[in-house]
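Holo model, ribose-5-phosphate. Inputs:
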Amino acid sequence: MKDHPIIVFSGTSNPKLAESICAYLNKPMGKVWIERFPDSEKIIRLESDVRGKDCFVVQSTCRPVDASVMELLIFLDCLKRASATRITAVVPYFGYARQDRKDAGRVPITAKLVANLITSAGANRVLSVDLHAKQLQGFFDIPVDHLTAAPVFIEYFRRRNLPRLAVVAPDVGNMKTAALYAAALGGELAIIHKRRLTGNEVESIEMIGTVEGRNVVMCDDIISTAGTVYNAARLVKERGAEQVFVGATHGVFSGQAIDRLSAAPLDEILVTDTIPLSEAAAELPHLKVLSVANLLGEAIRRIHNNESVSSMFT
Ligand code: R5P
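Output:
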């Protein structure tokens, strides 16, 4: 795509992240006008010319989820009709991902539905970070570059240089990531067996591995209602852990999350900027935000130059 200039646009869900990506790429942000008609329908007009350009639109499908999804779809349609040469949907946080199979009768598979909508609207490629399940890549019939924020967290914890480290997966789904952290940081590995009671309630039943007298780093892809990390933090503390840190890529913070995170025995909560912080989350004294802007910026640069993206993680 070297003959087709690169241009990065931002939807309204995460403009700060988009600005940081543009700063990494040393490119001005594409100009766009986004408004609502009086009946609340959204209208988007591109103010930068995109004909013949390699276009990237940054939009996390976070809260308000339906509005963010719809805006992304309208943006993609707009770029397609304005004759962009190639369109990449940069979706740092891909919402609706957790409904990814029929686990009961008469329920939808929203992850597939949203993937279909993004493709139909005009995306030629997708770039995302820590999808809820890696196999969601296969829900798209267009190329998906799937990044992980693990290097960002690993770098942070490496700098902290915590002694006597144990890396804990708060459920089996996070086992591989925890093993990666443990290999990179040199700690012991422990795994918690979690049972989900309802969408809002989980229990941490048992743990394989030992954390007594150790500083614990937990990793997760999402903190939603914070039931998972709240219970896991309590369990490791009961088992004699010293300081407890959690690194989760997407700070969704819904339902009782803020109360649980305030009450949990956690020394630090780390999330990335795939989702902008709500005011309540920003008040949490032990919460820190690490940026994935450079990671996304580098992936965009490589996609544009037809260079390997996977080699960023080897
Ligand atoms: C589970 O499969 C995920 O990795 C997260 O642990 C989960 O989505 C977090 O949800 P909550 O914060 O509501 O426990």
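The pocket of ribose-5-phosphate is lined by residues 171, 173-174, 202, 220-228 (CB under 6 Å). The radius of gyration is 20 Å.
Archived with the compound record.
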